[in-house]
Amino acid sequence: IPVDRIRNFSIIAHVDHGKSTLADRLLEFTGAIRENSGQNQILDKLQVERERGITVKAQSVSLLYQYKGDNYLLNLIDTPGHVDFSSEVSRSLSACQGVVLLVDANDGVQAQTVANFYLAFGKDLTIVPVINKIDLKNADPDRVTRQLKSLFDIEPYDVLRISAKLGIGVKAVIEAIIEQIPPPAVNRQSPFRALLFDSWFDKYRGALSLIFIQDGNIKVGDEIQSCHTKKTYNVKSLALLRPQEDPITQLVAGQIGLVGCNMRSSKEAHIGDTIYNPSCPVEPLQGFEPSRPMVFAGVYPMDQSQHVNLRSAIEKLALNDSAVTVEVDSSPALGQGWRLGFLGLLHLEVFSQRLQQEYGAEPILTAPSVTYKLRMKPNKHNVKTGREIFVNNPALFPDFMQIEEAFEPMVVGTIITPDKYLGGIISLCMERRGVQRSATNIDNERVMLQYDLPLCEIIVDFHDSLKTISSGYASFDYEDNGYQSSSLVKLGILLNGVVVEELSNIVHITKAQTIGRRMVLKLKDIIPRQMVQIAVQAVCNGKILARENIRAYRKDVTAKLYGGDVTRRMKLLAQQAAGKKKMRMVANISLPRETFIDVLKK
Ligand code: GDP
Ligand code: MG
């Protein structure tokens, strides 16, 4: 197929606005799948995706369509559908020249619509605006059209109106894609050069990479080299995804296809890498920042006998998800485990759900944390001032005496809400230390708010609170915005004077008192009474913020004895003392595991 009859595009939309449904309709319309085959949402392959209704891993499909007597090749590149995955959306868009911007006719423009629009706009992509669900009783496409005009300056006559569910207007979408989105600017005569923009792991064939061929061609049997690792490979297989793998012997510039070359690990398939033919070296294509984990959590087996199983489950899943980082970790109370890095809280939840569903592993997850940046004071081992370290595990947070300045990761959050919930949402953002950037009316009853927010304040139930406050009507999206200096402190928990690192927390100084008090009361509730009194304390920078005592059982083991036998009495008292010692040890060092799980569960 000549280059001018190739179109590479994505559908971008807020979650639930109908991206998967439209993708299914496009597949049916072009004959890639049979109509009413009952296989809904073909591109959502993972079980969690079907359950949660969100796309996690980007998939892609090549479609053929006849238009005005010519065959066109339409490559639909699916993008993950949630805020946690915006860096992945961005990389999927690198292989596109245009997008279909899909907006629900009832919900209107939402936070992810805005974020996705700016991603596509920033990459200079052609935007085909489409209002979906016009069949809904409450559909108000005129109003959505006005929103598109006021927010993005999209002209009303450019906006298509469809029902993906009923298949109304789908043909017009395909034709707009062909008419409006330019073909890729590629060169088939130049030496081979391709962008690696996605990859996943296959048990039998190793890492498979999805590539966009910028120049030249690639054939089965060719030698290829990675710009990033400089490793060379032999091309074992090439395929189009339609959506099942359709083997092919050659791919040419402008096409998107799957390459198998016996890569042992998905770490070798570096997303954003340029691959080329080692006999004709080329300039690397403009890559993109690989996605960076933002949220970290410890993962431990329920008991150490499950350690081996859990390890192999984590390894397998991480192979398939290059955005997850894995490091070995251990804790006195929870044993051997790992510290994993995720793109966001949803990514973490999806990963742990997949561990359970696909591998039957039941791990314990510790409270999530972000990565703090610390500038250390000079000391005798470290003469240089201004040394910077990064810490994502509260247990490893250094003593405050050693820290010169602390920084925390920030985001810019976008919230779209009906204006009647404005008051509650502004309070929530303030409580989470947010600073308002702007408030804009997008029509006569909806407002778009932008806030600077600390990442750590939104990773735990910010989204849920927002939904509760707004009866589900507010939407939220965020984007990474670097580090900001902040008064952070380590909130430690002491049991009878001994620090329990698994329960440490990094908090803003203004919140230390409240959180410390809350944790102490909670632990008082959870920890069972024992033979000795247990003092539960929250400490911060060497000061005690809160304290509760868990009273001991009073048991006089000699009460039942009638004076008499002194040696027996002594023996019993000695036993009781030994028991106390053991208990103290339990209280100080290894509390019952359930205690940690209960506290961490929140
Ligand atoms: P995604 O999250 O953007 O992939 O959205 P889905 O395609 O999963 O659709 C979300 C929900 O909206 C599903 O229940 C669909 O059946 C429904 N839906 C999608 N398109 C339409 C439409 O045109 N009309 C109506 N009434 N419902 C639709
Ligand atoms: Mg979907």
UniProtKB/TrEMBL annotation:
GO function terms (MF aspect): GTP binding; GTPase activity; mitochondrial ribosome binding
Gene3D superfamilies listed in its UniProt record: 3.30.70.240, Elongation factor 4, C-terminal domain, Elongation Factor G (Translational Gtpase), domain 3, P-loop containing nucleotide triphosphate hydrolases, Translation factors
Membrane topology reported for the UniProt record: Peripheral membrane protein
Binding site for GTP: 13-20, 78-82, 132-135
Subcellular location: Mitochondrion inner membrane
Domain Tr-type G positions: 4-185
Catalysed conversion reaction: GTP + H2O = GDP + phosphate + H(+)
GO biological process, one term: positive regulation of translation
Keywords from the UniProt entry: GTP-binding, Hydrolase, Membrane, Mitochondrion, Mitochondrion inner membrane, Nucleotide-binding, Protein biosynthesis
UniProt GO cellular component terms: mitochondrial inner membrane; mitochondrial matrix
EC number(s) on file: 3.6.5.n1
First-listed, main subcellular location of the protein, grouped into a coarse class: mitochondrion
Top-rank lineage group of the source organism: Eukaryota
Oxidoreductase as UniProt keyword: no
Annotated Pfam families: EFG_C, GTP_EFTU, LepA_C
Enzyme class: hydrolase
Entry's family note: Belongs to the GTP-binding elongation factor family. LepA subfamily.
HAMAP family: LepA (MF_00071)
Function: Promotes mitochondrial protein synthesis. May act as a fidelity factor of the translation reaction, by catalyzing a one-codon backward translocation of tRNAs on improperly translocated ribosomes. Binds to mitochondrial ribosomes in a GTP-dependent manner.
Protein's name in the database: Translation factor GUF1 homolog, mitochondrial
UniProt source species: Zophobas morio
Origin organism lineage: Eukaryota, Metazoa, Ecdysozoa, Arthropoda, Hexapoda
